Amino acid sequence: MYPIFLSPGDQIDQTFLFIIGVSLVILLGLVLFTLFCLYKYHHSRNSQAEYIQGNLILEITWTVIPVLLVIPMFYFGWSGFKASRTVPKDAFPVTAIAKQWAWRFEYPNGKVYNELWVPQGKPIKVSIVSEDVLHSFYVPAFRIKRDAVPGMENFTWFRQDKIGTYTLYCAEYCGLQHSEMITQIAVLSPGEFENWYSKADTSLSIPERGLKALRMQGCLSCHSLDGTQLSAPTFKGLFGKETIVIKDGMEITVHEDITHLKSSILDPQMDIVKGFPPIMPTPKGLSNDDLDAMIEFIKTLR
Asked: pTM higher than 0.70, yes or no?
């Protein structure tokens, strides 16, 4: 059994190192055996071919040795899997919420953020849920991949002893902007994390809160801030603009004022901007204050 202090990533690394080590030994043995056969059975020493019906000892050997090698591989793999599903009792809980096409993280004190910030050296339990379709919580640096399945809660855990920033991907194709569903895991010193965790976001201005809400809802996966056309209209210059939309199968022109922007956010399928696919999901957990802040931020992008 693995030592209890090993994280799932460390356990997976040790299992792979064991398998690689065994594979190298087998490779070396096969090469040496091949060279031995080339020497011993060279045609200069064995000019007359000999018919061999079988060799019981050889057959038993090449059956028993692989079995003896596969059993510890299975043991290490099973032990690592079991440990990866056994969360330490002192783990810090965080909920990762996946949606098209962004991650949102909710902390026990009510704090919500679009990046996963965690303390160094502390076991972290991540409860994984999806608001819409299949996603997958994938952190290559931590050797973690767990699916986010609609209607159920999955989980994983990790502990990272090195301060730094690590990339979190979605590893399950989840729609048009799947490749943009990327965020960061920031590992902070315990003091830095506690300072951030206990600090409220009251210092943010209304437009800053709006930008934060847009990130939380995954809006910036499709809507750019700099005029670049992605899979949805850019937010730059959107406020006050005349836009052609498809409504009830007909083209009409609308004025992008506060009322229409709010309606478009709350009911994305009401008006479909001409030239863009109807892929925007209905936002969930969006408060009126956050909605107002979103509009105020969009107004700044003149």
From this structure: no
